[in-house]
Write the structure tokens for this entry.
Amino acid sequence: MARDEKTPSERRDFLKTVGGAAIALAATADARGQSASGKKAAHEGTQRNPSPDLGLWITWYDLPEGGRDAYLSWLHETYLPGLLRRPGYLWAAHYKTLTSGGSPGANLHHTDDPNVPTGSQYILMIGARDTFVFGNPTPSAIHAALPEQGQKMLAMRVGERVNLMMEAGRCDGLGTRTYKEGLRGAPCMQIGSFNCPFEDEEDMHEWYVQVRLPVMCTVPSSVRTRKLNSVAGWAKHAIFYEFASLEGFRRDYEATNAKSPVKAGARFAVSHLIHAPNGPNSALRIWPPVPKA
């Protein structure tokens, strides 16, 4: 016959070889699977549950003295409850600024661009599922559709500056364990919004991920710290610190910063950042009212 046939001995050797290769392949796949599962478990152990409020609509602005009470009543009783009825909108928090411009003596630089609005007395934070929520409809479209009374109230804002931002990452501080308000913005916060020379951005990202946020995770009064990146607005970056109380913020914030300096010789330096006018800002939440202890 023309076809080539193997002897019984040759067939046995061939089957042994194929069987051994199959066992080795299965063992390798299993090891890879176990390794991936281990890495996934380790990652989940440090990251906790994924955030359901990845999008933030942030507005900084000032108000004149005249008509301020009427504006605040409209904002808290009409405007914000109306926003929170929209799909994808999860929470809102309105803050009154305590200090602007960062810590005294801090080596900070601010933009001198006259086109960047300078408001900072009030900060309005809207949390959503993601930034796509703010694209359909956009904040500008929502405001354009407001009735005449709403238009008049919005016109009272002075130096209004807006950023739509996406959470790049976060760490939950020790204060999360006793914080009872869930997603809602914490009673006390600090936010800095800024631009960074593009050649320093990778080093800045490394510093926030490896140094600043891990240290903030150890702070008793820290609820959350979030690094944000912009979808729309002047600032490309922001850092948003949330604290359970003003007392905790004053006790822990500067002390924790001192434990996370930029390493000597690093390309990135805090002094290289160009901050928004009057930023960073520390602030207390005025709506919803902070529950009494």
